[in-house]
Amino acid sequence: MATGGAWQSETFDNGRDFQKARGEPHYAKQAPPMGFDTPPAMYNESPVGMSKDSSAFGVIALSLRVLQIVFTLIAFSVMAANKQTIYSSYYSYYYDDSYYTTSTIKFSSVRSFVGVLALNCIVCFYAIVQLVQSFVNMSSKGSFISSATTGFAMLTFLFDTILAYALVAVAAAGADSAALLVDGGYSSYDKFNQRAQASVAMTFFAFILLAVSAALYPVRLLRLAKAS
Description:
228 residues, mainly alpha, 2 domains, 2 strands, membrane, CASP_dom, CASP-like protein
C-alpha cells in the first residue's frame, strides 16, 4: 500500500480517472493528511476579491473620517470665533453734541448657532475616535475596518446614522437663523452673517460625509451576502 493510506494510492485517485474519461478538467484538491489540528490554508480560502474589497472599503472609510474631522473642525472654529462689534455715532441737535454707541453680536446670542458649534465638536471628537480605532485595527489585524458582522461595526453604523441626522437638523436650523438675521435688520453685521453661513455650509458638508460613512455598512453587508 502506498504511503499515506489507500486514499492517496494509485487505486483510489479521488476521481481523477473518472474526470479524465469525461473530458473534465481536474479541480479536486487532496484531503489534508491525517493528524493536522487545523486544515491547510487551501481549505480556508476566502471568496475571490474579498480581501481587496476590504482594503478598498478601509481606505474609503479612513478618507471619510479625515474629511469629517477637517470640515467639523472648520465649522466649530469659525462659529466659535464669530463675533462682531459695530460702533455707531449720533448727533443730537437738542444738545448740539455727538455721542457714540457700540453694539456687539456673537454666536452665543443665537441658539441654533450654539447647537451648530456643540454638535460639530461632538462629531469631530467621534471622527477622531473612529480614526484612531481604524489605525489600531490595522496594526492588530492588518485591515482598516473590522468585519461588517461585528458588534463594533453595527454600533458605528448606528452612531453614524444618528449623528448624520442630528447634523443636518442643526445645519438647517442654523441656515434659517442666518437668513433671518439678514432679513431682520441685522444686515449691517455682514461679517457675522458671512461667518455663520460659512460654518453652516461646512456643517452640511460634514453631514454628507457622515451619511456616506453610514451607507458603507449596508453596502458591505450586501457584498458579504452575495459572496456567500
